[in-house]
Write a structure and sequence with these properties.
alpha+beta, five-stranded antiparallel β-sheet, 5 strands, 20% strand
């Protein structure tokens, strides 16, 4: 999930809404700009992906939540981890990547997986892209096959960093971040998958997520681009 940078300017005639829209474009444009690296990453990771891996296309950050994807508040969340109390975007992005790369079909249904992931999403913002996050969960037919196979996955996080395009965008306009407080963070690591009868495997993973970290408030997940950048 490539323009090299997004340069923002703020003419005095801009309305506050126009400014906020431009600010979110920093993180969103960075995510979309990284999409061209996806094929390169697939080659670097060495071969085909396990059955549980799902590839998605980059999507707009301003997206409504379809009713069929919104989990019921009463739905239990199985073994899905709760979002951490973190104000550091790098730390939160690491945890979010662990969320995206972990599941346990032995203890968690697909609806529970979605409900658990939904708790990580930013609220009260038009920028939260739940369809992009929920699309990381395999479709019902594949999840059913994974359940029959007692498949589960864990994640080992290697590192997290701000992509160079995001850092350049902020260097071009340092005040941009204070409008929406959205950071693009690239996380790398390894996903370990296991299934019944002793089957197991693993491969490198990389993802760029957008997280919102407002002052004195826990971070929250906003968007995803299934790719990586320097």
């Amino acid at each position: 999930m490539t323009p090299r940078r997004t340069v923002l300017s703020h003419p005095a005639s801009w309305s506050p809404l126009a400014q906020r829209t431009a600010i979110i474009a920093v993180a969103t444009a960075v995510l979309l700009a990284l999409a061209g690296a996806a094929a390169w990453i697939t080659k670097r990771s060495g071969g085909s992906r396990p059955a549980a891996a799902v590839t998605t296309s980059p999507t707009s950050a301003v997206t409504s939540t379809p009713a069929e994807l919104a989990p019921s508040p009463a739905t239990q969340t199985g073994s899905v981890a709760r979002p951490p109390h973190a104000t550091d975007p790098l730390a939160y992005a690491k945890a979010a990547a662990g969320l995206l790369w972990s599941y346990d079909t032995r203890t968690t249904s697909r609806n529970q997986q979605l409900a658990g992931m939904h708790r990580w999403m930013a609220t009260g913002t038009p920028y939260a892209n739940w369809p992009a996050i929920s699309s990381q969960v395999p479709d019902p037919a594949l999840w059913s096959r994974m359940t029959d196979n007692q498949q589960y996955a864990t994640a080992a996080i290697t590192e997290a960093h701000f992509p160079s395009a995001f850092k350049q965008a902020l260097a071009d306009d340092p005040a941009a971040l204070t409008k929406a407080y959205i950071y693009a963070v690239t996380v790398t690591g390894t996903q370990h998958i296991a299934w019944k009868n002793g089957g197991a495997g693993g491969e490198p993973r990389a993802v760029t997520v957008a997280v919102q970290c407002r002052p004195n408030t826990d971070c929250a997940l906003v968007d995803i681009a299934p790719s990586v950048a320097p």
